[in-house]
Amino acid sequence: MPRNGLFIEYEYCTGCHSCEVACKQEHNFSDGMVGIRVDEVVTVGPDKVHIDFIPFTTRFCDLCAVKTEGGEQPACVKHCQAMCMAYGPISELTKAMEAKPRSIILAPR
Ligand code: SF4
Ligand code: SF4
Question: Measured between alpha carbons, how far is residue 109 from residues 21, 63, 65, 75, 96 in Å?
Fold first, then answer.
C-alpha cells in the first residue's frame, strides 16, 4: 500500500486559512486543536520584503482517513481557495514537486 501525503505549492498560497477552517469543521476539533496551520514567513532583502504563507500539518492530521478511504479528497484540499494543494501517493507527489520548486510535501502518520 503506497504511503500518501499532501502536496502544497506554497508559491500560490494566499494565506486565506480556508484549509485550517475546513479541517477544524471536518473533525469537529475543539479550540486550540487543528490539523493544519498556515505560517507567515517574512524574508527581508536589500530592496524587497517577501512574504510566504507556508501551511504545515500538526500531529492531529490523519489525512482525513474516513474521507479518503471513501474515495473523497481531504477537506483542506477540497476547500483550498487557490487550488494549490493535492493529495495522493508520495511517489506521484514527488514527481509533481520536481516541476514546482516552491512547494512542499507533508506526510503525517
Ligand atoms: S488532510 Fe484532513 S486532517 Fe489533514 S490537515 Fe487536511 S483536512 Fe486536516
Ligand atoms: S486554503 Fe490553500 S491558499 Fe488558503 S491558506 Fe490553505 S493552502 Fe493557502
Answer: 21, 8, 11, 17, 21
